[in-house]
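Lab notebook, design round three. We kept the backbone fixed and only want residue identities now. Task for the bench partner: fill in a sequence for the structure below.
Input structure tokens:
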């Protein structure tokens, strides 16, 4: 990795979508991203897919981390991806999903455009390094 890549500013939106009220993991990853030097925006709880899309577009983020534990990932994540495409923001945004996602659903999410799915217990260093290596340039 070049020095320029490790020093560039990476803007991340950590988003909680739907009725999922469990936000401890989102807070942990937001803090890890902040400690890694990333700019972090946290959506707060209970956001609709459209609200997350609007925040990602308005904040011009490189990375959208969607935290979801409700089991509605196959419904809500595609709506977010569709919204990003409508604003021509999909190609320039690294989309990550975190939470309890069944293995069978991970391939489907990746086929839709999710770059990676991180489950419980993933080391923070692994997630941070993935973002550093894969976040699109702005």
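Proposed sequence:
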């Amino acid at each position: 990795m070049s020095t320029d890549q490790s020093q560039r500013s990476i803007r991340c939106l950590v988003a909680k979508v739907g009725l999922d009220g469990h936000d401890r993991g989102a807070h942990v990853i937001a803090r890890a991203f902040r400690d890694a030097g990333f700019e972090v925006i946290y959506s707060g709880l209970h956001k609709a897919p459209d609200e997350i899309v609007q925040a990602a577009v308005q904040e011009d983020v490189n990375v959208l981390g969607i935290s979801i534990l409700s089991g509605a990932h196959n419904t809500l994540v595609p709506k977010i991806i569709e919204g990003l495409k409508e604003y021509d923001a999909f190609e320039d945004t690294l989309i990550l999903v975190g939470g309890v996602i069944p293995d069978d659903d991970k391939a489907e999410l990746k086929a839709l455009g999710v770059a990676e799915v991180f489950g419980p217990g993933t080391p923070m260093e692994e997630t941070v390094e993935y973002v550093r290596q894969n976040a699109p340039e702005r």
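Keep this in mind before ordering anything: Residues 73-86 form the longest helix (14 residues).
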